[in-house]
Amino acid sequence: MNKPFTILFEPTSVCNFSCLHCFQSEASFHEHLPKGFLKLEEFKKIINDFKSWNGDKLKVVRFIGFGEPMLNFDLDEMIKYLKKSDIAERVEVTSNCSVLTENLSEVLVDSQVDYLRVSIYSANQEKHEKITNSKISIKKILENLKVLTDIK
Questions:
Q1: End-to-end CA distance of the chain, in Å?
Q2: Of 73, 83, 86, 95, whose Cβ has the fewest other Cβ atoms within 10 Å?
Q3: What gap in Å lies between CA 126 and CA 77, rounded to an integer?
């Protein structure tokens, strides 16, 4: 049996946005998918299992899913472990970057994450708040990205 091309990890099912177009905005969403976080030890076991699987590297591993990946406080360690394991050609993260820290920015750069997809729905604060159902400042997100850019 061949390895799959892509693996998606959902570091959490929790999000700090509740975007109008997203299932997180549905009142009953967490009745069907409980709130939770992927544990670092479980992640490492999955990576080790893939590492022991014969065959070519995975094409890509993505941190994405039902929640905001950066809300999982172990995401930095997951990225480091994944990159050191060398099981994938590419590592990608999709995030709203509202909680991107300087430490995580350093990990993203030092670990040479291949692609960071940032979900920004408006540069206008009022429109951003309406779409995301949050009071998170778009300026804060841009400041977080500036820190990442400066580190890079």
A1: 39
A2: 86
A3: 35
